[in-house]
């Protein structure tokens, strides 16, 4: 990641309200570094698509500013738009064109001169080279989505927006898409994707932004987010119910559940010293016996649900 230079995308105090009073975005601030993958998570209506639409110049902001590569998206619209590739949610492709024609056409729209080598390489990376002469209408939904990515990348943008890139896509294709995204990042393309799929963010993002009701609730490095909230738990089924927790368990995060029949121990799964051995030793000393033991770990999904709850 290139943190010495200024961010590739800088969003400052960005808000969007509609004439009916609905506030789609509320004071968003976010800097995105060159060559990072950032995933924006959030329920429907959180403002993810509105945010992308403003940066791409499709929707006008009510207040605030956005720059791409140091240029203002409104004052220097043509300049910023040529740096951006957008893969929309909807499969909008011309059914009667071939894959190659539509990709070349998209490149031409941005005033770029033809480049057969680049386009062939692009189609090859998306497994579309063999299908380049096929009509788009004959392709499967997954392949049509790849054509959209080819179109978005045809003019060699620095920043690629993927709005719900794998919605309704089978697992196989989803994994392929992730590989394509990683390969692009390795070439220095900055990728911003919106997703409903927590595992998508968990799998490929460097940073995760969580949006809810038009606000950016939090932006964290994925590893830090998982670390901060990546608690693990052990649930013990006790042989005899406990009325209360014994005093000699200070320092352990414990909770009695199910009328004292279960004991829940929470610890940081990222720590080298999890304290499990000493905890089990302490149980033995205190004469607390258990029948069964289950471990769980909070996933990004639970973290997400928790954060959205807290921001309501």
Automatic annotation (TrEMBL):
SMART domains: AAA
Alphabetized Pfam families for the sequence: ABC_tran (PF00005)
One MF term in the entry's GO annotations: ATP binding
Sorted UniProt keywords: ATP-binding, Nucleotide-binding, Transport
InterPro entries: AAA+_ATPase (IPR003593), ABC_transporter-like_ATP-bd (IPR003439), ABC_transporter-like_CS (IPR017871), ABC_transporter_ATP-binding (IPR050763), P-loop_NTPase (IPR027417)
Limits of the ABC transporter domain: 9-238
Superkingdom of the organism of origin: Bacteria
Annotated protein name in UniProt: Multidrug ABC transporter ATP-binding protein
Organism the protein comes from: Leptospira hartskeerlii
């Amino acid at each position: 990641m290139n943190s010495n230079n200024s961010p590739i995308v800088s969003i400052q105090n960005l808000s969007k309200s509609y004439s009916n009073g609905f506030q789609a975005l509320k004071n968003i601030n976010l800097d995105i570094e060159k060559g990072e993958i950032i995933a924006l998570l959030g329920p429907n209506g959180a403002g993810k698509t509105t945010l992308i639409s403003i940066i791409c110049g499709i929707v006008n902001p009510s207040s605030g500013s956005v720059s791409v590569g140091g240029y203002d998206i409104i004052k220097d619209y043509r300049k910023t738009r040529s740096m951006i590739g957008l893969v929309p949610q909807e499969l909008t492709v011309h059914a009667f064109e071939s894959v190659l024609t539509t990709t070349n056409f998209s490149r031409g729209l941005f005033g770029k001169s033809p480049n057969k080598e680049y386009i062939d390489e692009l189609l090859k990376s998306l497994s579309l080279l063999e299908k380049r002469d096929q009509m788009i209408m004959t392709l499967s939904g997954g392949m049509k989505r790849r054509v959209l990515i080819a179109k978005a990348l045809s003019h060699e943008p620095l920043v690629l927006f993927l709005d719900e890139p794998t919605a309704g896509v089978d697992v196989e294709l989803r994994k392929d898409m992730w590989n394509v995204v990683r390969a692009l990042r390795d070439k220095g393309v900055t990728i911003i994707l919106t997703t409903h799929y927590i595992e998508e963010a968990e799998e490929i993002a460097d940073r995760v932004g969580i949006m809810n009701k038009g606000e950016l609730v939090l932006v964290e490095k994925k590893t830090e987010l998982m670390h901060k909230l990546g608690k693990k738990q052990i649930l013990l089924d006790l042989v005899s119910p406990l009325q209360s927790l014994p005093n000699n368990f200070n320092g352990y995060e414990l909770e009695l559940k199910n009328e004292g029949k279960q004991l829940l121990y929470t610890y940081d799964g990222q720590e080298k010293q999890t304290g499990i051995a000493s905890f089990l030793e302490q149980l033995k000393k205190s004469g607390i016996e258990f029948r069964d033991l289950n471990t769980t770990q909070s996933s990004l999904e639970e973290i997400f649900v928790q954060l959205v709850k807290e921001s309501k």
